[in-house]
Write a structure and sequence with these properties.
This protein is 60% helix and 12% strand. It is mostly helical and 103 residues long. It has a single domain, classed as Winged helix-like DNA-binding domain superfamily/Winged helix DNA-binding domain (Arc Repressor Mutant, subunit A), CATH 1.10.10.10. Strands 1-3-2 form a three-stranded antiparallel beta sheet. The radius of gyration is 16 Å and the shape is elongated.
C-alpha cells in the first residue's frame, strides 16, 4: 500500500481524471481521453505534458497512413504509485471530515 501523499501535479481535476482513467487500462487513445473529458486537443496536450514531465505518463504513436495514426497514452509505474498515494491522502482527508462531522 502506498503512503498517503498529496500530489499537486495529479490533483488538478483534469489530470486526476486522466490518471484515474488510465489506471483502469493498459493505455487509452488520445481522442478517447479528450472526448471523455470534453476538452480541446490543446488542453489535453497541456495536461499530458505536465504528467509526462513528471514521469507519470508515456505516449506512443501508431504508425500507418496519416489518417490512421493515433496517439496512445499509458500510466507509468511511477504514475500508478503517485496516483495511489494521492488517492490514499484524499481518503485520509475525507476520513478527517467524517470524524469531525459525526462527533
Amino acid at each position: 500500500m502506498n503512503a498517503p501523499v498529496f500530489n499537486e501535479i495529479i490533483h488538478a481535476p483534469n489530470r486526476l481524471q486522466i490518471c484515474a482513467m488510465l489506471s483502469a487500462v493498459d493505455s487509452a487513445e488520445f481522442a478517447v481521453l479528450r472526448d471523455t473529458l470534453a476538452v480541446s486537443d490543446s488542453v489535453l496536450s497541456k495536461h499530458l505534458k505536465v504528467l509526462q514531465t513528471a514521469g507519470y505518463v508515456e505516449t506512443a504513436k501508431t504508425s500507418g497512413r496519416a489518417a490512421e495514426r493515433s496517439t496512445w497514452i499509458s500510466l507509468t509505474p511511477a504514475g500508478r504509485r503517485a496516483l495511489a498515494g494521492h488517492l490514499a491522502e484524499l481518503h485520509r482527508i475525507s476520513d478527517l471530515a467524517n470524524i469531525t462531522n459525526s462527533g
